[in-house]
Design a protein that fits this description.
The complex is a heterodimer of chains A (313) and B (291). Chain A is mainly beta. Chain A is built from two helices and 17 strands. In chain A, the strands form three sheets. In chain A, strands 2, 4, 6, 8, 12, 13, 15 and 17 form an eight-stranded mixed β-sheet that branches. A five-stranded antiparallel β-sheet of chain A has the order 9-10-11-16-14, with no helix packed on it. Chain A is elongated and about 95 Å long. In chain B, a hairpin with a 3-residue loop joins β13 and β14. The chains are: A mainly beta (313), B mainly beta (291).
Chain lengths: 313, 291
């Protein structure tokens, strides 16, 4: 009988606790997009002439954005090493890698195992230090969210109670890619439009290359990671795809300049809500400001090999 | 042993003595008007994706004035994300303290419901939920004053033993009369009345509708002195006017009436203040996006 009562009490106690744990999983964080590595460092540092080396490279998408047209380029020292087709440059196109999602936080990857034939060294040298260069070019995105205060009475013309106040938002954790939106400076401009005081929110968006790779204009993989000339406007170019809050998007903003050009690794764009979309004075509110950027990125990795001559007596 | 029994008896008898008389007679006390709070988990601190959000506010009238038109407004959030169908409440009546109910009103509640319309490609974001109560209120202070027409007559047989008493520091409303100084002359009774905002909100004059956004600076921190009367029939005239501005939560008004003849007398002074009152509370809601 006692046991029954205790069990009943335990059931009751279990029923009372309705506090569920908070769920929080941020996938749009980090400053790495695609990471290149040699699995377990299995490529030897020293090889002999005429040997076949298996060059194993892994490209891992650690960010939340999908890749679908990436290019892997592997270059070897011509005359010293060659790929099975006899060339010294191998290009693998249209690599697809999934991005992370809320329910799937797995880092999608591709592994390429490529045989490289070492050629004979000439008679004059006992060894040769060669290098295998690998470049991975991909188009990537950056989605930043900043909780901003839309203060529709910024100068306090009327004693409206303020739930929030406009302040600078720092986004130091990145958005899951090497180019990150680091800071957003909101400013509420009061303007008299058609005799009415209205508010035009303005956002200064700061972007930075936080990786070790090179940024280029999205959609320029073939140009940037192939042979040929590179136009100056391709280099370091980041496109602003969208800026949105409430029911406004990029079409409701005047943004200057039109795209980011990362001089010294960083740049900013200022977007102001158009005059015809200006806000009526009212209570302040908090809302997520979404900023979306696109860019191309070139990640490189190299492997040094000492090729030794097979000495014969 | 007998001593101990006697002690227990005394304790029991003292416990049975009615101690509620003082609280029921002094019901015009306290600095609360509306007291409100969010119901636990409404809103919760976190919601997932397109979940429904309930904001439930329970409120009481803890002051000594009957509410007839209290209104509550919900703001601070982005209406494109949280689509509450209504942001304001209808006019809500609620009785206050009275001699028969010295505790104040029963609990009442108001609620808002919305479905989260979460933007795409966002991990999580914060929405503020601020509830502002706007209501008209009245504070009635009723101290006793001793008026002495023969104050400066040294030959008068009797004199007042006090000038003002039983004012108290609050009168059952967020705005209180905290001091009354009597400065009489031969032919006039002058009262310097100190008024203070002792609540956590903002007093104002004017309409209560949309007090969270519609007020002007000329409206806020002002109180209207509706009447100052002595013995129910002698009205005071107040200077500089009946609208008193509170500076740092405190204001003064000087009211006067002709001095009656005769000997000193003690009479109830009734000071009635009318004002609107605005008070707010906030809570943050984190929306976690699972899209």
């Amino acid at each position: 009988m006692k046991r029954t009562i205790i069990i009943m009490l335990l059931f009751l106690a279990a029923c009372q606790n309705s506090n569920e744990p908070d769920i929080m999983r941020n996938i749009y964080v980090g400053t790495i997009g695609v990471a290149l590595d040699f699995i377990n460092n299995e490529i030897p540092d020293k090889v002999r002439e005429n040997e076949v080396v298996y060059y194993t490279i892994r490209a891992q998408n650690r960010g939340p954005y999908e890749l679908n047209n990436a290019r892997l380029t592997i270059s070897v020292d011509p005359g010293i090493m060659k790929f099975p087709d006899g060339s010294s440059v191998m290009v693998i196109d249209d690599i697809t890698l999934q991005g992370k999602s809320f329910f799937d936080t797995f880092d999608d990857f591709r592994i390429r195992n490529i045989p490289i034939t070492i050629q004979s060294l000439d008679e004059t040298r006992a060894y040769h230090d060669a290098e295998i260069l690998t470049a991975f070019c991909y188009d990537y995105k950056g989605y930043a969210t900043a909780n901003v205060c839309i203060d529709r009475n910024p100068q306090g013309a009327t004693p409206v109670e303020k739930t929030c106040r406009t302040s600078i938002v720092l986004l130091s954790q990145g958005q899951g890619g090497p180019v990150s939106i680091d800071k957003i400076e909101p400013y509420m401009i009061v303007e008299v439009i058609n005799g009415v005081e209205l508010v035009r929110p303005q956002f200064k968006i700061f972007v930075q290359n936080r990786g070790r790779g090179v940024v280029f204009k999205p959609g320029s993989i073939a140009q940037f990671c192939g042979h040929g000339d590179i136009d100056s406007d391709v280099y370091n170019n980041v496109r602003l795809d969208n800026i949105a809050f409430s029911n406004f998007n990029i079409h409701d903003f005047d943004c200057l300049p039109g795209s980011f050009v990362l001089k010294g690794g960083s740049d900013h764009i200022t977007c102001t809500l158009k005059r015809e979309r200006a806000l009526q004075k009212d209570a302040a509110y908090t809302t997520p400001l979404r900023v979306e950027i696109s860019y191309g990125y070139k990640e490189t990795i190299s492997k040094e090999l000492r090729i030794e001559k097979i000495l014969r007596r | 042993m007998k001593k101990m029994l006697l002690l227990v008896l005394i304790l029991l008898v003292s416990a049975c003595t009615d101690s509620g008389s003082s609280s029921s007679t002094k019901w015009r006390t306290g600095t609360d008007g509306i007291v409100m709070n969010f119901v636990d988990n409404s809103p919760p601190s976190q919601v997932i994706g397109a979940q429904q959000v309930h904001v439930i506010v329970e409120y009481y009238n803890r002051g000594a004035h009957e509410l007839t038109d209290a209104r509550f407004y919900l703001t601070g959030y982005d209406p494109n994300i949280l689509g509450f169908s209504q942001t304001g409440s209808p006019r809500l009546p609620l009785p206050g303290k009275s001699i028969y109910n010295p505790q104040g009103s029963y609990m009442d509640a108001i609620s808002w419901t919305a479905t989260v319309n979460s933007p795409q490609r966002v991990d999580s974001f914060v929405q503020d939920l601020t509830v502002t109560a706007c209501y008209k209120y009245q504070t009635i202070a009723s101290p006793e004053i001793c008026v002495d027409p023969q104050k400066f007559d040294y030959t008068a047989a009797t004199k007042c033993g006090f000038t003002v008493r039983n004012l108290g520091s609050s009168q059952g409303g967020p705005v209180a009369v905290t001091d009354v100084k009597q400065k009489s002359t031969n032919n006039r009774i002058l009262l310097e009345i100190t008024i203070e905002n002792k609540g956590r909100g903002t007093p104002f004059t004017g309409q209560t509708d949309r007090c969270h956004t519609a007020l002007q600076y000329s409206n806020i921190n002002t109180v209207y002195v509706q009447s100052v009367s002595l013995g129910g029939n002698r009205n005071f005239h107040c200077l500089p006017g009946n609208q008193v501005r509170l500076n740092n939560g405190r204001g003064f008004v000087v009211c006067e009436t002709p001095m009656p003849g005769g000997t000193y007398f003690v009479s109830p002074l009734v000071i009635t203040l009318d004002y609107g009152y605005r008070q707010s509370m906030s809570r943050s809601l984190t929306v976690v996006n699972v899209n």
